[in-house]
Amino acid sequence: MLEIKNLAMAFETERGLVRAVNKVDLSVAEGEVMGIVGESGCGKSVTLLNILGLVPHPGKVLSGEIMFQGEDLLKKSKKEMRDIRGKDIAMIFQDPMTTLNPVFRIGEQIRESMRIHGLFKDVKGGFFKSARKHAEKDRAVELMEEVGIPSPETRYHNFPHEFSGGMQQRALIAIGLSCKPKLLLADEPTTALDVTIQAQILALMQKINQEHGAGIILVTHDLGVAAEFCHKIAVMYAGRIVEQGRTEQVMDNPHHPYTQGLLRSIPKMSSKKDRIEPIPGGVPDLAELKEECAFYPRCAKAHDKCLSQEVPMFDAGEGHTVRCYLYG
Ligand SMILES: Nc1ncnc2c1ncn2[C@@H]1O[C@H](COP(=O)(O)OP(=O)(O)OP(=O)(O)O)[C@@H](O)[C@H]1O
Ligand SMILES: [Mg+2]
Q1: What is the pLDDT of residue 274?
Q2: Which ligand has its closest atom nearest to the C-alpha of 286?
Q3: Are 316 and 242 in contact (CB under 8 A)?
Q4: DSSP per position, 173-185
Q5: pLDDT value at position 12?
Q6: Distance between CA atoms of residues 321 and 328, nearest Å
Q7: Does 16 sit in the ligand 1 pocket, CB within 6 Å?
Q8: What's the pLDDT score for residue 221?
Q9: Domain boundaries, the chain
Q10: Domain 2-92+189-287, CATH class in plain words
Q11: What is the pLDDT of residue 129?
Q12: Alpha-carbon separation of residue 192 from 188, 196, 210 (angstroms)
């Protein structure tokens, strides 16, 4: 359904070109959940913004294609992308309050999304388009119920500040679902929520995936969440995908030293003796990236070859790929 090929984009800043996304290949099949994990600043959010055509100035696409249902999204006009956003591709962000409009009632905001995309445009009759409004309202209440907002008839008339964080996120998901999107992009959708609410929201997204068959890309810091929820995982480092495969391949048998480091840095409940092992050093400055392996300075297994040239993606078998000479 979605196939990103060789995508490269950069921000033209005073410090030089910040290569936020570097030759990324990524694909999501219908009904598939793809997780993108990696440290802060490695290009996860920007990758999603590229799919939506929402990369902020001074960002520029340098190369690649983003094929969605057979058409390249990078070749679409602003207007065409506006139609696709929300209708075919929906998005859920980390902080619902930055997306919900504080001065409109929740129900109206769900309705608005259906109105913009003309979901009930064929419903005619009555004065002041009231038949269409009723159809939209009924659907909005139904959606609120579906995402687990209690007493949706009453809550329809609430303003966002009258909702808790978890309920706001549910409202956003209802907006996202209102046009039955084929692809849902979720950028850290549960990071701002406590763990019980987080589990409920993830279960809700799982239901959407299973019942509506929507493909999902989930960006998360939380490897546990990714392991539980995703069919496939892509690990990003400094704008590049360094490892990709089915969840059990990446989690049970991580190949790239960076993935191995990420997994070692998760606290475990079972083994009290084991200390958390952080990966030494930090993410490099993306403005100073060369072709060589960006993880080199932090890697215990690095050798000269890693510095000499660009590391290609190697096939580790059965669709498991890794960008590291250890497997070349
Ligand atoms: N508007 C911008 N102008 C310049 N650089 C930007 C801009 N937006 C993002 N970047 C740079 O692009 C890189 C990737 O950012 P991105 O937000 O995708 O990271 P991320 O992986 O989502 O991190 P986090 O986990 O913290 O959300 C970062 O180095 C960031 O500084
Ligand atoms: Mg981000």
Answers
A1: 66
A2: 1
A3: no
A4: HHHHHTT--SEEE
A5: 94
A6: 11
A7: no
A8: 86
A9: 2-92+189-287
A10: alpha beta
A11: 64
A12: 8, 12, 25
Tokens standing for residue 81: 């992308």
Closest CA to 142 of 110, 168, 112, 115: 110
Residue given tokens 């994990």 in the structure block: 37
Q: Which ligand is nearest to the CA of 40?
A: 1
User: Relative to the CA of 219, which ligand 1 atom is closest?
Assistant: 22
Mean pLDDT of successive 10-residue segments in the chain (328 residues)? Answer: 96 93 95 95 95 93 96 96 92 85 95 89 71 91 92 97 92 89 93 84 89 93 91 97 97 96 82 75 88 93 90 94 94
Burial zone of 311 (CB within 10 Å; 0-12 exposed, 13-18 middle, 19+ buried): buried
- Sequence-distant (6+) residues with CB within 8 A of 108 are none
Q: Are strands 321-322 and 240-246 parallel, antiparallel or unpaired?
A: antiparallel
- From the CB of 42, is ligand 1 less than 6 Å away? yes
Tokens of 243: 């490892």
Ligand 1 near 18 CB (within 6 A): yes
Tell me, what's the pLDDT at 85?
92
Residue 115 identity (one-letter amino acid): R
